[in-house]
């Protein structure tokens, strides 16, 4: 890259980080730090959700996966995002919001008991730090492949980004994070669209790309087994790396993966719970999912265009940096890399803020040190921010072993995240007893661990692939978790009050300690919406959710299946 490109990268991101440091000043209470005192408008929360969702690993992994396996990933960006955000903003997060809680793991204790709470918190930390590892590796690939940096300089820059984002996040909390996310979202969109337009023009448009793929047949290097290059444009063509998995199973798996991001991950639910009203929360979810769908649709196309232009490109995860380096000129290349760096910083601050909240409230304040003042827990949250960011580097060996970054992520997600998603749903929509949560996590988690060992550690010969395969594991995780929940619900001696659920009151034990109770009381009254009377029809979140559903159905089943 040229000096002008690096000036654009450092200038734009430096300005955003400086703004974050400025907005971080004045945060003095845990309510301000963890949830921005529930004062965030829908558009700010929505753009923050988009910026967090669109880290650089999304660009790199989507491009590489589609270049190798085809458009099945589109299911995650359409129906997956839509169903996930609907479950989160219409069902699960409102229950947490009304209860005056700070984290989704805190809700698990009120619904199912303290054991489920701490287990849920540990699962979240493992889940999000694994995603952090994906993002770290994707930024490294981009800085080396596009920026031309030596590996040691690339790692030095990444560590610097971790430190800088950790500083303003540790000082300002959610308010500073959302403020910078709004600006970063604009930069991410501009960079993503710039590379899409450049590649589209260079190839000659959609028809030219399809013609090139049809001419390749099955000769292109790096294609998934059983696929011809022309099959890449179809969602339903991919049948797993072994060629035996039903496209319906893959479709369901992507819905479960995306729903887990929107619901299990406190990275997203923290922003929703910082909204100024329940209406703002729902509209923010629709905005975040809608903008993500548009940008990711263009990004998904890059994998197809990349395969058409470079049929023998054998390293899928390096396709996105290669396209930037090949087709963008001076200035435009700097804008795209600025978007990459901005997406990284957005993810760093989001992970640090949300997971430090989970550690501080759900583990430290609840089980380790229960009688300290607000300033002490605020300080612990800030220290935990840095520790969480460092954990992301621990996943790099697993990522390097996988055929693609996304394959590594899929293999880890089904172990505990999908069981936890089912437990949240059971808690929110049923009045089942309090032991159901732990029973479901135990059965679903045990299956997940066995499946992971069979796939990634040692082949267990007597376990069939249809039971532990990477895609099938998501469906079976739902089945085993639901079976554990049903078993616990049917035992007569385990039947009890429901706690916070669908129409149920809070029948759980009292708050764990004075600080947790006091900080929850700081959040203020719950607002349904910001309008003087009823919500106007054209401002109805349900209306725009329906529009997204129609668009998703048209894209997946009408255009690309």
Q: What do the pLDDT scores average to?
A: 83
- What is the first-to-last residue Cα distance? 39 Å
Number of helices: 22
- What helical percentage do the residues reach? over 70%
- Number of E strands: 0
Radius of gyration over C-alpha positions, nearest whole angstrom:
23 Å
Descriptive report:
The longest helix has about 55 residues, at about 150-205. Helix 6 runs antiparallel to helix 7 (about 115-145) and helix 8 (about 150-205) packs across helix 12 (about 280-310). The protein is an all-alpha fold. It is built from 22 helices and no strands. Mean pLDDT is about 85; it is low at about 495-515. It is globular and about 65 Å long.
List its salient traits.
single chain, 561 residues, mainly alpha, 22 helices
Short description, anyone?
By secondary structure, the chain is mostly helical.
């Amino acid at each position: 890259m040229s000096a002008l490109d690096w000036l654009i990268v450092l200038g734009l991101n430096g300005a955003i980080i400086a703004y974050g440091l400025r907005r971080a000043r004045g945060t003095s209470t845990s309510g301000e730090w963890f949830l921005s005192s529930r004062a965030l408008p829908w558009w700010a929360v929505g753009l923050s959700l988009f910026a967090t969702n669109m880290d650089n690993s999304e660009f790199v992994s989507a491009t590489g996966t589609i270049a190798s396996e085809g458009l099945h990933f589109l299911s995650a960006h359409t129906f997956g995002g839509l169903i996930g955000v609907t479950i989160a903003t219409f069902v699960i997060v409102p229950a947490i919001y009304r209860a005056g809680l700070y984290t989704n793991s805190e809700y698990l204790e009120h619904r199912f008991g303290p054991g489920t709470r701490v287990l849920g918190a540990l699962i979240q930390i493992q889940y999000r730090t694994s995603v952090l590892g994906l993002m770290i590796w994707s930024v490294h690939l981009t800085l080396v492949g596009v920026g031309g940096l030596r590996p040691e300089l690339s790692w030095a820059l990444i560590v610097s980004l971790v430190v800088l984002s950790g500083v303003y996040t540790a000082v300002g909390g959610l308010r500073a994070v959302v403020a910078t996310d709004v600006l970063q979202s604009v930069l991410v969109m501009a960079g993503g669209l710039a590379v899409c337009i450049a590649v589209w023009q260079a190839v000659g448009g959609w028809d030219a790309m399809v013609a090139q793929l049809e001419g390749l047949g099955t000769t292109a290097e790096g294609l998934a087994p059983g696929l011809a290059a022309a099959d890449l444009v179809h969602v339903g063509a991919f049948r797993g790396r072994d060629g035996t998995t039903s496209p319906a199973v893959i479709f369901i798996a992507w819905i479960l993966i995306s729903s887990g991001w929107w619901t299990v991950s406190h990275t997203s639910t923290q922003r929703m719970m910082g909204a100024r009203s329940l209406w703002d929360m729902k509209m923010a979810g629709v905005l975040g999912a809608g903008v993500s769908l548009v940008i990711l649709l263009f990004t998904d196309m890059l994998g197809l265009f990349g395969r058409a232009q470079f049929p023998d490109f054998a390293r899928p995860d390096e396709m996105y940096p290669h396209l930037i380096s090949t087709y963008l000129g001076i200035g435009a290349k700097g804008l795209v890399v600025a978007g990459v760096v901005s997406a990284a910083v957005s993810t760093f601050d989001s992970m640090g803020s949300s997971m430090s909240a989970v550690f501080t409230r759900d583990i430290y304040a609840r089980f380790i040190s229960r009688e300290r003042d607000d300033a002490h827990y605020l300080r612990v949250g800030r220290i935990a921010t840095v520790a969480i960011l460092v954990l992301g580097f621990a996943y790099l060996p697993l990522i390097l072993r996988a055929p693609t970054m996304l394959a590594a992520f899929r293999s880890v997600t089904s172990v505990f995240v999908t069981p936890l998603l089912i437990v949240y749903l059971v808690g929110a929509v049923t009045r089942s007893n309090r032991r159901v949560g732990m029973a479901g996590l135990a059965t679903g988690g045990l299956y997940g661990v066995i499946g992971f060992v069979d796939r990634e550690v040692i082949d267990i010969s007597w376990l069939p692939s249809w039971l532990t395969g990477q895609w099938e594991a998501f469906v079976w995780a739902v089945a085993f978790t639901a079976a554990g929940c049903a078993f616990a619900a049917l035992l007569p001696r385990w039947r009890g009050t429901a706690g916070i659920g669908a129409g149920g009151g809070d029948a759980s034990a009292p708050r764990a300690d004075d600080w947790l109770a006091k900080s929850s009381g700081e959040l203020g009254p719950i607002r349904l919406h910001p309008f003087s009377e009823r919500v106007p029809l054209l401002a109805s979140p349900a209306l725009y959710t329906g529009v997204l559903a129609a668009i998703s159905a048209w894209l997946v089943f009408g255009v690309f299946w």
